[in-house]
Structures are given as structure tokens and as C-alpha cells.
Automatic annotation (TrEMBL):
Residues 1-21 form the signal peptide. Keywords: Signal. This is PEP-CTERM sorting domain-containing protein. The keyword Signal applies.
Amino acid sequence: MNILKTVLLVNLALLSNLSHALVMPAAGSPLIVDQRETLYVNDGDIFDLSSLSITSSGGIDIFGNSQNASFSIIANSSINIAGYLNLFVADTTLKANEIDFSGILNLIGGGRINFIPDQRMDFSGSIKFDGVSHPLPPREGPLTGPQLPPKLILSPVPEAESYMLLLAGLCVIGLAKRHRLP
């Protein structure tokens, strides 16, 4: 059913010419979206930008090449979304030093989004999961716990000690496997 919805929406966008195909700029360049755009991503795509800004009159409909497509947008400075993002992909990651989100985020078909702010996040927009709205209280800083809808994830940047714990755990698993084998 989700694939049928996606196909229908893509055909509607193409036939009625409501949006333009978004061309991603070269790595390290800024991207400003001030109208309705459509972006098609391949599974595993990573877009490296200096900044991303979606104005209040702009927005992006993002479609994946498969039902389980995932992609990332990494901005060296900031991501500012005052318009909308309609995500027809399974997993999206937005990473930047500062993330300001005052627009509308619509996750369609069971997708999820990962926000990774290095320094600051200001989230005063609203989130929709398959059209059902989940407004969040205006707030600056990290979002945690009950403020987060179930498919919205805020990931901290891993610290060095996390990697050390991971390495130690893998060593313990390896030793346990080694001692079990004859």
C-alpha cells in the first residue's frame, strides 16, 4: 500500500508539474530552497553541503529508489528549515553544527529521521507521521525523552569513551567465541 501511495504521489507531481527536480550542488556548497522541489535519492546517498536553508515558501519532497532507502545530509555549518520536508524514505539523517527547524516535517510510510546537532538545536516546528500531526513545544537545545515522537531520533555525537566501550565489548565477545570453539 505504501508503494502505491508513493507511485501515485510521484505521478501527481510529475503530471501536474507542481514541483521541480532538485539538483544537488557540488560538495561543500550551500543549498537554498525557496520553492517546491523534488529530490530522488539512492540508498546510502550522503550530501555534503556547507549549509542547507529551506525558506518558508520552499519545501522538498524526497523519494528513495527503494522502499528502505536511507540517506544523509551533512552541513558544515547549519541546517535551517522554515518550509517543509516530506520524506518518502525509510531513514533520513540531518547533521550540522546548528539545526533550526520551524517548518513542517512529514514522515510518510513509516520512515524516521535522525537529527545530529554538533552544537545547538532549536526545534519549534511540527511533525506529521502519515498525516497525523505531532506538534512539539518551542524549545532551544537538545530534545529528549517524552518530547520526542517515537520516530524522531536525536543522536549525540559519540564520544571517544563510547568507542572504547564498543571495542572492549567486541574483544570480550571474541574471547568468549574463541574459548567455546574446540
